[in-house]
Design brief:
634 residues, alpha+beta, 7-stranded mixed β-sheet, 3-stranded antiparallel β-sheet, 26 helices, 48% helix, globular
């Protein structure tokens, strides 16, 4: 019978033998070993094509592809885990398998899918305390297949790029790799650029940014990005913009020549207009008159950072579109596809803000889907075996999910409502509204303090306290009219970032809509699950931190699957195995294994071990026992 302790012990014992993969039912656990292992090659791919029973990422990919070939039904692989657990590498392993077995001799789509990784990682990944190559966005990759089940195209959807990291990161961390790599193309060292120096970590051990830059350029060329110099100019412009310093109650840029003066030409903008845009704002007054107001130094710094984030976010979205254009091949059949989801794992830090709320909402939503899949699989097993299951009940995390997207009111709708308050909108008032609305109505919400500065949500993985400071600004995610007007006058590429910025949706509502769409897509697929685990926080090889790994197993929702199984029949054993083990209790009776099982369970001494009519049942191929203790007594 699966228990937390038995699973952890088994995973640890295998890890110590350099076996990083473990099956728990149909779910694959993958432990990051922080070292290279000789378990990935074309030869090993070919072995898993023939036999996909051993635990391995290749086995999951093989089962996906085989199911696609046999049924034509869309498949999905959901790769989850915390930062540093190996999600991105696992995703690349899945894609490399598909490229090997279904790449096609005449089409280079499979090769291009792999070549997109250096671009997405350069612009979407960064060093954090937990991971030197952490994906700061989620992605859903749909690999389409033709009638011959060869790779025909691919589409990538991205979720919630962490734009705040462009202008600042925590101590010991870095902003996005591309911002360091571009130093190979411009004058200056990392410490001279505030956006790069703020984390205090300029280099990553074992990583050569110049070499990675060369890899990025080759990938851009391979993907057909012909305007790569414009792309690099925008990255450089962001760095120079970050150098702008301001002074005075009526802000002025004190180093415009060496900051804005270098930034503006790279964007096709006039330096004077850029300086004006980040030190003033225009407001429409009564009777249509427009007034220009000077910003304070603090406001000017915020305007500078807002422009930098808008430029980088627009560039990231543009590169994703270019990657998708490169991977599109005619009218690829979307009904015949394998989707791979690589998305941020459950997060809980010392200080949790709007980003963590969104990330953990995504994990709650995916956990609800996971529970439904596991529970559905259990019910199908009982139905196929002819075992009664009407009494089997399971409480999922739907009430927690309702906190985020339930009707008529939820956390995001309350935040949107507060954002409508213009300059008077306040983070603490949003927190107070949440407390008044949910504290006594939803057991997953907990008010923290009377001032609305903090609240907690009891997630499936544990309680997380969120600090409301900054929620309103982050949810709005909007540029001032002055900055939008400025951006629209830039060069062709820059202007395109601001052309469609008339959106009225907040970041939270847009993310909620994205997740709803993703869930609808997933519900149409046959899912396969990989749970990635980080073996230790120090990223050391051959080190297994048992408490950390146990915590991640809990966060992964794996133990929820065990709880689902325990809600029904926790132990099941084939007729032959059960009969061989217990036939002695009925005198080694002659008959079929199923008949022997029925006679054993009908014996008076055995019947007394089970209390209710559904505590034990004989199915078509297995014996099902509800309570593991009764099985132990037997």
């Amino acid at each position: 019978v699966f228990t937390e302790g038995s699973i952890l012990h088994h995973v640890r014992r295998r890890f110590e033998a350099s076996v990083i993969y473990t099956w728990v039912g149909s779910i694959l656990i993958a432990v990051n070993p922080f070292k290279k292992l000789p378990i990935y090659s074309n030869r090993i791919v070919d072995a898993f094509r023939a036999d996909a029973t051993a635990p391995h990422a290749y086995a999951v990919a093989s089962r996906c592809y085989d199911a696609l070939r046999e049924t034509g039904a869309p498949q999905s692989v959901l790769v989850s885990g915390e930062s540093g657990a190996g999600k991105t590498e696992t995703t690349k392993i899945i894609l490399s398998y598909l490229a090997r077995v279904a790449g096609g001799a005449q089409d280079d789509v499979a090769r291009r899918i792999l070549e997109s990784n250096p671009v997405l990682e350069a612009y979407g990944n960064a060093k954090t305390l937990r991971n030197d190559n952490s994906s700061r966005f989620g992605k859903w990759m749909t690999v389409a297949f033709d009638a011959n089940r060869r790779v025909a195209g691919c589409a990538i959807d991205t979720y919630l790029l962490e734009k705040s990291r462009v202008v600042g990161c925590g101590p010991g961390e870095r902003t996005y790799h591309a911002l360091y790599q571009v130093l190979s193309d411009i004058e200056g060292e990392a410490r001279e650029f505030p956006y790069l120096a703020r984390g205090g970590c300029l280099r990553i051990d074992g990583i050569d940014d110049a070499q990675e830059f060369a890899t990025q350029l080759r990938a851009l060329d391979a993907l057909g990005v012909t305007d790569r110099q414009d792309v690099l100019d925008i990255v450089a412009a962001v760095l120079h913009l970050g150098c702008a310093e301001f002074d005075g109650d009526d802000a002025r840029c004190v180093n415009a020549e060496t900051s804005i003066g270098r930034c503006a030409p790279l964007l096709g903008l006039d330096a004077t207009e850029v300086e004006t845009a980040v030190t003033t704002r225009t407001e429409r007054m009564g009777r249509g008159s427009i007034v220009t107001l000077r910003l304070t130094t603090k406001q000017a710094r915020s305007a500078r950072d807002a422009l930098a984030k808008a430029l980088y976010g627009g560039l990231f979205d543009y590169l994703v579109r270019r990657v998708n254009e490169s991977l599109r091949r005619g009218d690829s059949p979307t009904s015949s596809s394998i989707g791979v989801l690589d998305i941020f794992g459950f997060e809980v830090f010392r200080h949790n803000s709007f980003e963590q709320l969104c990330i953990n909402y995504a994990n709650e939503k995916l956990q609800l889907f996971f529970d439904a899949c596991v529970f559905g699989e259990e019910l199908r097993t009982y139905e196929e075996e002819g075992v009664p299951f009407a009494h089997v009940q399971f409480e999922d995390n739907a009430r927690c999910v309702a906190l985020f997207d339930g009707r008529p009111v939820n956390l995001f709708s309350l935040l949107d409502d507060e954002c409508q308050g213009g300059e008077g909108a306040r983070d603490d008032r949003f927190g107070a509204k949440c407390a008044a609305t949910f504290a006594r109505k939803n057991p997953h919400f907990e008010a923290r303090g009377p001032d609305g500065a903090q609240f907690a949500v009891r997630h499936f993985a544990g309680a997380v306290a969120y600090e409301t400071r900054g929620f309103v600004a982050k949810n709005r995610d909007k540029l001032s009219t002055t900055l939008k007007t400025l951006g629209a006058t830039g060069n062709r590429l820059v202007a395109s970032f601001f052309a469609d910025d008339a959106r009225t949706k907040t970041l939270g509502s847009a993310f909620r809509k994205q997740l709803a769409g993703l869930t609808r897509v997933l519900e149409k697929t046959q899912p396969h699950f990989i749970r990635c685990i980080k073996s230790n926080a120090l990223k050391q090889p051959d080190a297994f931190d048992a408490p950390l790994c146990l915590e991640q197993l809990r966060y992964s929702g794996l133990f929820e699957a065990i709880r689902i199984r325990r809600a029904g029949y926790a132990h099941r054993e084939t007729h032959a195995s059960f009969a061989k083990r217990y036939a002695v209790l009925v005198g080694n009776a002659i008959g079929s294994p199923q008949e022997t099982c029925e006679r054993v369970l009908a014996a008076p001494a055995v019947k007394g071990l089970f209390d209710g009519p559904f505590d034990v049942c004989v199915g078509r191929t297995k014996v099902f026992i509800k309570d593991g203790r009764a099985r132990g007594a037997l």
